[in-house]
Amino acid sequence: MRTFTGGTFVAVTFLALTGLASSTVAADPVADFYRGKSISMVIATAPGGDYDLRARLISRHMGRHIPGNPTIVPRNMPGGVGIQAANYMATVAAQDGTALHAIMQSMSTHQALGGAGAEYDTRKFFWIGNTTDTPNVINSWHTTGIRTIQDVMTRELVVGAPGQATNSVYYPKALNDLVGTKFKIVSGYPGGNPVNLAMERGEVGGRGSNSWASWKATKPDWLREKKIFILVQIALKRNPELPDVPTMIELAKTDEDKAVMRFLSADIPVSRAYVTTPGVPADRVNALRRAFDATMKDPQFIAEAAKLNMDMSPSTGEEAQKFAESIANTPSQILARAKTILDIK
Fold first, then answer.
1. What is the CA 199 to chain-centroid distance, rounded?
2. In this model, does residue 16 exceed pLDDT 70?
3. H or E, element range at 301
4. Are residues 106 and 146 in the same domain?
5. Is residue 52 part of a domain?
6. List of E strands, the chain
7. Domain containing 116: what range?
8. Which of the listed residues 240, 265, 290 is the one where a domain comes to its end?
9. Of 233, 265, 297, at which residue does a domain stop?
């Protein structure tokens, strides 16, 4: 039988414990990296809207599912209707997994159309997950008397739009050209909330685009009191909650027109998605994606989302990545026709 002296036993024990500690540390480098750190959640809008409320909700819950349990700190960065924040993520933010971004839905489409001012490439972001595939919608205000998209075929409807090169401009412009509607677009509002105020004041008679989920979460009283009417939905198929509202694709008359409308609707599956920067190590990307997935199933998160009347139909980061890449890689002939219709030089 082999025996150990006291000194030998202590030395062997020390080495064994040291080896165990080393292996434990090596087993979870992601936790070691995030422990004691904070993650910035960059939000491309001003406080108060759907993008902001969702990002803050996720920030309150996702950290406990990330190894090391970092704190997630929301940071609003409005500007350029999403372009400023996307550019920041591509060119300034640390590429180590300590920056998340509630990316504006239209960023992939904007890039594909030539992307004035865009310094980002959505294909190079790592997509962490998406909270909903809610459709976008165009609405009228109740005082206009316009209730359906057919009404806009015969009567002018003035709609407000944030920015200049945004979905709120593109959707009504495409419908005018391809379907024969009579939308008059007043663009340049700094955000969605100012458009809502303009509707209330009677400056415009509708909004060029907002998500259905956003209306439900931020203005449930308007829906309940029938202050707004949903005219058309932008989606690949009709949302079950809007069974009588046509999609833009349905309204298009030819296959070529439908292809353009399908391109403009292609970002709906990433309506409220979250990305991190290029260059993040693969193990951290995977940890962030799995933490997002776990958050979507977290009872505390689900309960708070329900309390906020927030629509949730999540998809994984891997799924969101595929949608973003497919939009950016849209065939050139479809992009050329879309640019002509939307008057993009």
1. 25
2. no
3. helix 299-307
4. no
5. yes
6. 38-43, 71-76, 99-103, 126-130, 136-141, 157-162, 183-189, 206-211, 228-234, 273-276, 315-316
7. 35-132+272-330
8. 265
9. 265
Segment 98-133, tens digit of pLDDT? 999 999 999 999 999 998 899 999 999 999 999 999
- DSSP state string for 167-203: HHHHHHHHHHHHT---EEEEEEESSHHHHHHHHHHTS
* In a shared domain, residues 148 and 256: yes
pLDDT, tens digit, 9 for 90 and up, residues 215-229: 999 999 999 999 999
CATH number at residue 100: 3.40.190.150
Q: Which residue has the tokens 């962030």?
A: 288
The mean pLDDT value for 176-194 works out to 95
Residue 30 in domain = no
Name residues whose C-beta falls within 8 Å of residue 123's C-beta, 6 or more positions apart in sequence.
324, 325, 328, 329
pLDDT at 26: 52
Question: Do 70 and 59 form a contact (C-beta atoms < 8 A)?
Answer: no
Domain identity same for 297 and 316: yes
Q: In sequence order, what DSSP letters do the residues of 58-117 get, joined into one string?
A: HHHHGGGGSTT--EEEEEE---GGGHHHHHHHHHTS-TTS-EEEEE-TTHHHHHHTT-TT
Co-location of 167 and 209 in the same domain: yes
Tens digit of each residue's pLDDT (9 = 90 or more) over 17-53: 455 444 444 579 999 999 999 999 999 999 988 999 9
Instruction: Give the whole-angstrom CA distance, residue 337 versus residue 322.
Output: 23
CA angle at 161 for the pair 157 and 163, rounded to the nearest 5°: 155
289 with 245, same domain?
no
144 shares its domain with 258: yes
- Contact of 82 with 107, CB cutoff 8 Å: yes
158: in domain: yes
Highest mean pLDDT among 23-27, 67-71, 106-110, 326-330 belongs to: 67-71
Sheet holding 71-76, edge to edge: 71-76, 38-43, 99-103, 273-276, 126-130, 315-316
Total of domains in the chain: 2
CATH of the domain at 161: 3.40.190.10
Q: Beta-carbon neighbour count of residue 313 at 10 Å?
A: 15
Whether 106 contacts 82, CB under 8 Å:
yes
Structure confidence at residue 119 (pLDDT): 96
